[in-house]
Amino acid sequence: MRHVQQTIFLMQPRQALVWLACIFGCGLNFVATASAQALPELPKLKLENFEPGIRAQLGQVYREAQAQPREAAANGKLGMALHAYSQYEFAAHCYARARHFNPQEFRWHYYYALVRSALGAPSEAIAAFKTALQLEPEDLPARLRLAEATLAAGQLQASQALYEELVKHPPTRAQAHFGLGQSKRAHGEHAQGIEHFRQAIVLFPAYGIVHYTLGQALRDQGQTAQAKDHLALSQQYKHQQPILADPLLAAIAELNASATDLLTRGVALDAMGKLEPAIAAHERALEINPKLAQAHINLISLYARAGQFEQAEQHYRAAIVNTPNLADSYFNYGIVLLGRERLTEAAAAFQQSLERNPFNAEAHYNYAIIIEREGRLDEAAKHYQKALENNPQHRQAHFHWARILVQQENWPAALDHLRQTLTPEDDETPRFTYALGATHIRAGERHKGIPYLQTALKLATKRGQTDLSAIIERDLKQLEQER
Questions:
Q1: HEC states along the chain?
Q2: CA-to-CA distance for 127 and 134, rounded, in angstroms?
Q3: What is the pLDDT of residue 36?
Q4: How far apart are alpha carbons 351 and 363 in whole angstroms?
Q5: CB contact burial 330-343 (16+ within 10 A = b; e otherwise)
Q6: How confident is the model at residue 53 (pLDDT cuts 50, 70, 90)?
Q7: pLDDT score at 5
Q8: Is 60 exceeded by the pLDDT of residue 29?
Q9: For 38, 67, 428, 440, which has the most beta carbons within 10 A of its beta carbon?
């Protein structure tokens, strides 16, 4: 069994099997069925049709498979190499053989399902994904791919059930909203579909295919101005989508040395927390294609996080020279500048980003932070509002806008925003709870404020936040003395 990163599905394996059986409406004989299928022959490859470098790579694994035709690993390894170069039909034959010789190995069923999906055979893909999920029911990438294949097969009710489970898990939430939007729209529920598309963009503002699909949906509803905006953004972000850490798929990408696959690998490595290897993969992609804009954009952030600010600035310059209209170049560089307290330059970068993408909640929020520090409170409030229009769950935007409202003594609005900062419970919650209590007290509502201060003290103590605990204890003691 492989270790699946970023999987937070909490059911026990036995419970998960019951859940799968309920969702799929089938028994638990997938593995036996897979191994009972007719065994295809090992594909006959014409290696001369491949470029020299690829020819050598494929030749080695092909000879190994020929020498060990009944070994699952040898067949699977050849399938992986063919898969990496989009030779899906040949790869499917190899994976089918690997499944036959080792039906208990999750990855061969998963890989087979992926290539059957790529070949436009969703029904076969669905069966293989179900087989894989019998072996590892908690695997989020396989569950997401199954939902996608089910939607592609036109099984709308089944796909909705799968996406509704996936939307509960942060790593798949944006993709699940997109899938639910597609399913709802195909079912004629256009308003609900549009809302799911909007939720996907809130979670991942640069989700290119969702901007395109939302643009089409809005145009069909007669909302042409908004449709035009999203269709334009879909061109700007056409190669971008949220990345779900998938070590098995990353293993396929590592076998392909092309620039785009190196970029994909770099993004996956970053998602797994492997910063230095992610930088190396992006740099290798640029060696192959020096004008690969997304590699430059990603490296702005990657190098900044590595503390190599000169390299980050170099990639920012390269990005805006090659493709000056990409909002993320300016946004990523603005984050770098903000972190280094170069506030005037950071503000200019965020403005450039917002001119190109006015829907980026983080750009509005970070720009507002800067101008609030300059005392431009009304203007900052407008950008906090824009941030919340594009991401209503942005806690920091709620908190900072509330601070401005407190200064203006607009107590009801300030309290409303602060109440929306209390969930989810994390290290920020004690501070936000304290702010809510203090605002109630400043508004003359001691009876409401003191319980929040007491709750904030418990939360801060629980999380070991000693400085905050001391401040709250001092305030509570003073309030007690003033009674």
A1: CCCCCCCCCCCCHHHHHHHHHHHHCCCCCHHHHHHHCCCCCCCCCCHHHCCHHHHHHHHHHHHHHHHCCCCHHHHHHHHHHHHHCCCHHHHHHHHHHHHHHCCCCHHHHHHHHHHHHHCCCHHHHHHHHHHHHHHCCCCHHHHHHHHHHHHHCCCHHHHHHHHHHHCCCHHHHHHHHHHHHHHHHHCCCHHHHHHHHHHHHHHCCCCHHHHHHHHHHHHHCCCHHHHHHHHHHHHHCCCCCCCCCCHHHHHHHCCCCCHHHHHHHHHHHHHCCCHHHHHHHHHHHHHHCCCCHHHHHHHHHHHHHCCCHHHHHHHHHHHHHHCCCCHHHHHHHHHHHHHCCCHHHHHHHHHHHHHHCCCCHHHHHHHHHHHHHCCCHHHHHHHHHHHHHHCCCCHHHHHHHHHHHHHCCCHHHHHHHHHCCCCCCCCCHHHHHHHHHHHHHHCCCHHHHHHHHHHHHHHHHHCCCHHHHHHHHHHHHHHHHCC
A2: 11
A3: 44
A4: 8
A5: bbbbbbbbbeeeee
A6: low
A7: 32
A8: no
A9: 440
Kindly report the length of the chain: 483
CA distance 413 to 392: 15
pLDDT in tens, 442-463: 999 999 999 999 999 999 999 9
Residue 337 and residue 330: Cα distance in Å, rounded?
10
pTM (2 decimals)?
A: 0.58
Q: 233 or 10: whose pLDDT is higher?
A: 233
Model confidence at 418: pLDDT above 70: yes
Q: Residue 122 has which token pair?
A: 């969703």
- Answer whether 449's CB lies under 8 Å from 441's CB: yes
Quickly tell me which residue has 């190499």 as its tokens.
81
* pLDDT value for 30: 39
Q: Average the pLDDT over 323-330 and give the result.
A: 90
244: its two tokens: 């779900």
pLDDT at 12: 35
Q: Give residue 37's pLDDT.
A: 56
